Structure formats: C-alpha cells, structure tokens
Amino acid sequence: MIRTRFAPSPTGYLHVGSLRTALYAFIVAKQNGGDFLLRVEDTDRERFVEGSIENLLRSLDWAGINPDEGVQFDLNKKVVQAGDKGPYIQSERLDVYHKYVDELLEKGHAYYCFCSKERLDEVRKIQELNKQATGYDGHCRNISLAEAKKKIETGEKAVVRMKMSKEGTTKFTDLIRGTVEFENKLVDDQVILKSDGFPTYHLAVVVDDHLMEITHAIRGEEWLPSTPKHLELYKMFGWTPPQFAHLPLLLNPDRSKLSKRQGDVAVEDYIKKGYLPEAMLNFVAFLGWNPGDEREIFSLEELVKEFSLEKVNKAGGVFNLEKLDWYNREYLKKMDDEELVLRCKSLLEEKYKISIFHFPISKVIALEKERATTLVELVDNLRFIFEDMEYDGKILVWKKSDAVKTKQNLANLSDFLANLSDFSKENLQSKVGEWVKENNLTNGDVLWPMRVALAGQENSPGPFEIADVLGKEKSLERIKVAINKLS
Ligand code: GLU
Predict the structure, then answer these.
(1) 393-485, CATH topology level
(2) How far apart are CA 277 and CA 396, in angstroms?
(3) pLDDT grade, residue 262 (50/70/90)?
(4) Does the CB atom of residue 8 touch ligand 1 within 6 A?
(5) Residues designated catalytic
C-alpha cells in the first residue's frame, strides 16, 4: 500500500512550491490506490503563525487536494484529524518523540549537549576563519549518560544530539536524482531534541514517517542535505526508510530562488486574484514535470494517469506568470457557461451589489469570457453591464463621421428599435443590418455609436450582444443618454 504525505509547517500560508509538493504526493498516492496524509509539522514554536492550519487547508481544499488521513476539514470546514495513526499534529506527539529520544540515548546513539550558544558561535567563527566546514565540534560527545543526567538534575540546560557516524558515506537512491552520496564526516551531529522539550524536524519526521507507514517521502530539494541524517536515524532505530523524492526548486524568471520579494508566492494570493484551481494545478504540475510530448492541458485526473516521479526534472522549474495566465485563459475559455456562472456568482454579487438572478447571467459572462485572464478581471470587465458608465460624448463619434450626423443616426436608430419587440442578438443583427442598408448608411455610422452608447466605453463587445443582455428598455435608455451627450 502506497502512503504519501504532505507535511507543511504552519508558518503562515501555502507556498506555490508547497502546492506542487502536495500535488505530486497526492498524485503518487492516487495513481496507486494509496493514501495521502496531511501531517502538521509545528515543532518550531518560534515560526508558528496562528490560523495557518486553516489557511493551508483552505488553499488545498480550493485546489481539490484533500487528504485521506491526518489533518483535514470536516464537512463544516472545521479542522479535524482522521485516522488511526494520529495525532497528526506534531506538537501533540511530544511523548512519542521523548520515548524515541530516550531509546537513542540509552543505546548510545545520541547524547546530551550542554554547550552554550556563545560557545557554539565561537566554534563556528573559528571554523569560518580557518575555512573549515562549519558544524558541531563534538565537545559533549563523550559525556556519559549518567554524568549528563546528574548535570541535568542540578538544573543545567541541555539539548540532545544524534551521534552521526563520522566514517564512510551514506548512499541512497533518490527517485528523481538517482544515486546520491554524502561523506559522513561532513554531516553534523544534528540536534534532535531542543531544550524546550520539542524535537527538531529531523527526529520528528523520521519517527512520524515510520509510525505513519509512509512509503514515499516527497519533499523539496532543500531537504536533500538532511537526508543522510535521517537515514542514519532509521539505521539507529533499525527501521526501513521510505523512498525519497526531492523536488527541484522553483525559480524566478531570472533563475534566482523564488521569493516573496519578486511577486506572490502564496496560493491564497492567486485565489484572491481569481485564478482557477484547474489552471493553477496544471501550471504547478508543469513546474517540474511534463509528459515528454507537446500536450500541456491536463486535468487532475489526467495527471494522476500520466504523471511519474521518474520524469520529474532535476533542474529548477521557472515560475513564469505569463504561463499561468495562459493556462487560466485556456481554462476560462473551455469552461461551460453554467459552471462559470457558479464561479463568478459571489464575486459579481459582492462587487456590484446585485443578485445574479435578475440578469441573463450566462449571456452576460459570455460577453467577456474570451477576453479575460482571471475571474476577477472578467468580473471587472463587466462593470458596464451593471453600472451606467461616465464617458465623454466625443467617443460616440466614429472617425469618418461627425457629432451632428451621429446624433441624427442615433435618434433614428432609437425610433427604429422602439418598434422592435424581439431584442435577441440574432434578430437585432438582421433587422438593424437591413435598416442600415435601406437608409444608405454604413456600419461605422450606426453600429459604432450604438455600441459605444450601450457600453459607455470605447472598447467593448459588439452592440447586438450587449443589447441582447441589457434588454430593450435599458438599451433605449442608454441610447437616449448618448444622444443628449451629443447636444
Ligand atoms: N515540514 C517540512 C517543510 O515544511 C516538511 C519536509 C518534509 O516533507 O520532510 O518543508
């Protein structure tokens, strides 16, 4: 049984890179009929941000990446934990970690370290001056457990460090990077338990991946240098490690590491801007993977069918916003009108204080659907339907016409329209078309001012589509306003 996990630290929001990690872990579980877990790694209390767990879950839920086990929303969007291997929030598992730290101490695989911060800083400074690799110098490595316990009884503060073997190498096969090898003497005696009684990530991730029976640890490349420490811990405990897959970094277009300074990195920012979850998932999936052919549009289901970790690139993926925009436009165009109405409903109602039931809303949305990049832009672009626009009468005049003629044409058109009962786009198109010809006018003379009058702005969809959506009364009212602007 394949079991993967996404193990975010609750430090604020879901990073787009973490969305990709979660997506890949989700896909690997799903394509094998396995389970996808969510575990909250909150052992670093200094970085904890209130409300992060809800935030993370909200973004994942939006994307449709829902855990089978672990921390998740219930039907009322309340945070709950489900599964028989919990708790799944690390701060609720301290007794579990203490038990395993004790085991390592007893077996001599770990030791108490009493070094002060000042001493460690000093050691580091000297190492840097001597151009040596920095790391713990093993000062407390040989303090016996009995001696250490006595010191602790007298109130001395201590952390626990793992006793990393200093000989040989640690070698493993990463599902993405192939064989990876580290020289053990360069690997630090990592702190595994802090003086506040909390484990560090390194101990907690190993204990939990083991107890939660994780088969594939899929995570960011920044954890690659920590893997020899983790493998050493697995060895000390006598456990079989999961398979590892370290995902390439995400990069800015200038190939620097993707950072907040260069733009939005939180999934919630993209939600607020009106990106579609389908587009976002497709986009992030392609930040490290492609099917090896020309196809670019993949639904989540198709990704589950075709994705493979072995095909994930080793090189960093460039986070290119233009590509995200392209995906979003493609998905918007493709989306059926009813679905699009559901997605825009609350945005429209909030922005224009309307109830969409009072409008032929599918037709309204269709007016701008092809031209917008995001839902928010689509809704913004529809302002002219819900509000009467302020505009300068000059824009009503077509380039080969003048204000007097334009006024006359609009007045005549208005009389003609007043006698039409069928205001459907098709009927308007044929009837107004005939009328233009019969009166020896051109489209520019009539359709330009008609369109501008109806939209109240220079650029807009065609006049017949707008009139169809506005209806007869509103259309005539706007034409009248236009005529008055030409006096
Ligand atoms: N808590 C770690 C992070 O947020 C998870 C790393 C892992 O998946 O092992 O990056």
Answers:
(1) Arc Repressor Mutant, subunit A (1.10.10)
(2) 40
(3) low
(4) yes
(5) 260
